[in-house]
Amino acid sequence: MKKIFILGSTGSIGVNTLNVLRNFSDKFAVSALTVNSNSDLLLKQINEFNPKFVVVKEEEPANKIKEHLPSGCRLLTGNDGLITAAIEAEYDIFVGALVGFAGLAPTVEAIKRGKRIALANKETLVVAGEVVNKYCAESGAQIIPVDSEHSAIFQCMVGEGINEVEKLILTASGGPFLNKDKSSFENATVDEALNHPNWEMGNKISIDSATMMNKGLEVIEAHWLFGLPTDKIEVVVHPQSIIHSMVQFIDGSIKAQMGLPDMKLPIQYALTYPERFENDFERTNLPDIGTLEFFEPNLNKFECLKLAFDALEIGGNAPCVINAANEIAVERFLNREIKFSRIPALIGSALEKIENNKSSDIDTIFDCDRETRKFVKNLN
Ligand code: NAD
Ligand code: MG
Question: Of 17, 72, 182, 366, whose CB count within 10 A is highest?
Fold first, then answer.
């Protein structure tokens, strides 16, 4: 029986992870669940999955569920609670399903314990890829990507050597504004930006898909996961989201991994790798799909994608700067404080203003994140 820790169990990835685990209750048990504030859903999850540790980051919702907990279930709160749970709970696989920079600290603790990390929280690798890889090498922790593109590449690489890779081809749906003019970004509403054509996801990643910053973060994520330079990572727009990504080898052969846009499959693979378990998920019917299209991305229209490529080229803490700036810009857009079209402008200003530091030390990363957030909160 493998024990599972889910960091961010009430979000889109967290709920889908529990949907996968429900099918394999003879193979997996849940040992810890953590959430930001949704204590009502957490309580339902506790009653069904019986974890030994739960963390509710916010105090008030934590107090609400205190007296409803089954005996033997320990409740913690705050960021410290997330870290304590990652250090003290018993588990084999840590599912990183928290959104944003806040996922870094607890994930690092799981890595230091040498656990398998089923990683959806791409921000952890974007901001701290170098130091995270160093911790993995020291502890023997293995990151198995959950992000569908990286899971696809990981699956294509089974039985292959990285030296025989010519390039990685990350596919991108293009998001809700693929066929809109850049001039329409000025008045794009929150509801329009959240309305992803193929995937149902949390709000932050949905906005990232609309700006294509999501693909930019994924280029950086791929760099740290597979150890390839920027010029060997290509982005191709594929609006159907059936091919989740591809690997082109030095003999010109291209392998692709395909499936319906449903995160349950990459989540399950990260839990069962190197095995595959039979399931009853909906199957891909190619004649129903009919056409698969591919286009070059428009970097002039999707400036965030360009900024992410730039940040990876600059190196040092530049990816941490664009990540923090993006998190604040997206939050401000969701709060209707800034226009959609301002998101890349705010990130660009931060990349210009925040001093580039080449140290990959973890404390430097936390300082850089804090400084960038403060700067972008005050920009008009
Ligand atoms: P979400 O917003 O739906 O869920 C986030 C979860 O984290 C929730 O359980 C929430 O309670 C918790 N959380 C959020 N902020 C927190 C904080 N500061 N402290 C403690 N807990 C906090 O997000 P999501 O869409 O599930 O995405 C999670 C991660 O997975 C992101 O990094 C995203 O980029 C990545 N990802 C998501 C998808 C998807 O289909 N949703 C696909 C690929 C990758
Ligand atoms: Mg993805």
Answer: 17
> Which range marks the domain in which residue 196 is found?
150-261+282-299
- What is the maximum alpha-carbon separation in the chain? 62
Answer whether the bond into residue 274 is a cis peptide, omega within 30°.
Answer: yes
- Of 125, 145, 165, which closes a domain? 145
Atom of ligand 1 nearest to the CA of 38: 11
Task: Specify if 276 maps to a domain.
Answer: no
User: Which ligand has the shortest distance to the CA of 148?
Assistant: 2
Whether the Cβ atoms of residue 89 and residue 52 lie closer than 8 Å to each other = yes
Nearest ligand 1 atom to the CA of 208 is 34
- Strands (E) located in 103-141: 116-119
188 C-alpha to ligand 2 centroid (Å) = 23
User: The pTM is what?
Assistant: 0.98
Q: Contact at 8 Å (CB) between 110 and 86? A: yes
pLDDT, tens digit only, all 380 positions of the chain: 999 999 999 999 999 999 999 999 999 999 999 999 999 999 999 999 999 999 999 999 999 999 999 999 999 999 999 999 999 999 999 999 999 999 999 999 999 999 999 999 999 999 999 999 999 999 999 999 999 999 999 999 999 999 999 999 999 999 999 999 999 999 999 999 999 998 889 999 999 999 999 999 999 999 999 999 999 999 999 999 999 999 999 999 999 999 999 999 999 999 999 999 999 999 999 999 999 999 999 999 999 999 999 999 999 999 999 999 999 999 999 999 999 999 999 999 999 999 998 888 999 999 999 999 999 999 98
Ligand 2: centre distance to CA 157 (Å): 17
Output the CA 147–ligand 2 centroid distance in Å: 5
Same domain, 154 and 141: no
